[in-house]
Amino acid sequence: MIWLSSQKLEKYSVLSASKYGISPFLIGSTIIAFGTSAPEMLTSLFAVLDGKSIMVVGNVIGSNIANIALVFGLTLAVLFFKKEDFVAQTEIKTNLILLILSTIVIWAVMYVELFHFYSSIFLLSCLLVVLIIWYKTNTGFETDLEENKENFLILKLICSLGFLVLSAWLITRGALNILDSFGVGEMFVGFTVLAFGTSLPEIAASLALALKGRYEAVAGTLIGSNIFNGLFVLAIPGLFGPSYKFVYAEWITILVVLLFVTMTFCIYIFSRIKKPKKASLMISFLLFASYLLSLYLVY
User: Fold this and answer.
1) pLDDT means per 10 residues in the chain (299 residues)?
2) What is the tens place of the pLDDT at every residue in 173-187?
């Protein structure tokens, strides 16, 4: 349900925006990126309402690591076996820098005090700055605008959102049941069950794009999704004033892995700007290994 409803939400969002005259750039950099992060947002909201705020952190960090280590790693593997070159355009530089800066901001906020109202306002303010930069530089994420032949677009959009809310609630309830039944920690459940479940839309979409050779669209979507996850989803607990005391020391090793995969992703794409080369299987293996390491550390 997460997988299908996310795809429909993105499709009908794009078609609705196109129909009502919203520019392709704004569709790509806001609606698509926001749409791919919708499962994380909703599952995090339900987790907070159940008093499991630490699962939100596991969900965000786990999703961001999975997006790069699994999704981009899978993309490179597909391109390698298809014997296709990987090349990036100059315009992506700004977005790579924003991704690195947002990762540093996440680390800084977690170090100072994560579950605080002012921390949440700061994260949301950073997201607003990112949106303004995207608008000013006009370097959004590419998307295909289908010919608009759909009827009842708004109704379909609302229905897809409704199914996404329901599926997010179900996966959150399932994660809480696992937490209660097996006695594992909130961090582990958030990092695995929630993070992988909510990353299914990115995995499905990216695999389809990679098979079509549209790897730059994959990179753009992952950048937008990770920025929204870190600056929006991570702000949710502080807005509700949870009682849980966040312990920074428990997350240092996982943050190191997140920074490592983010820097590997950014450096690799930087090195391919205007320089087409065969997709690297070694980088793919390195990213997969990083994800397995993160699971071990969380466990």
Assistant:
1) 75 71 56 68 80 84 90 86 81 89 94 88 94 71 52 80 78 78 82 78 68 70 86 86 74 94 94 85 94 90
2) 787 788 778 877 888
Query: Which pair of structure tokens corresponds to residue 275?
Result: 């320089």
C-alpha–C-alpha distance, residues 182 and 185, integer Å? 9
For residue 257, CA distances in Å to 17, 54, 93, 222, 287 come to: 37, 18, 22, 17, 10
pLDDT digits (tens, 9 = 90+) for 236-292: 888 876 556 778 888 899 999 999 999 999 999 998 888 888 888 999 999 999 999
Q: Is residue 149 part of a domain?
A: no
Output 106-110 pairs: Cβ under 8 A, ≥24 positions apart.
106/60, 106/230, 106/231, 106/234, 106/255, 106/258, 107/255, 107/259, 109/234, 110/57, 110/246, 110/248, 110/251, 110/255
Q: What is the pTM of this model?
A: 0.81
Domain-embedded: residue 162:
no
Q: How far apart are CA 106 and CA 82, in angstroms?
A: 36
Q: Are 85 and 277 in contact (CB under 8 A)?
A: yes
Q: Is 35 part of a structural domain of the chain? A: no
Number of folded domains that form the chain? 1
Q: How far is C-alpha 151 from the chain's CA centre?
A: 30
The Cβ of residue 48 has, within 10 Å, a number of other Cβ atoms equal to 22
What is the span of the domain harbouring residue 218? Answer: 53-139+171-298
- 109 located within any domain: yes
Burial status of residue 204 (CB atoms within 10 A of its CB: 0-12, 13-18, 19 or more): middle
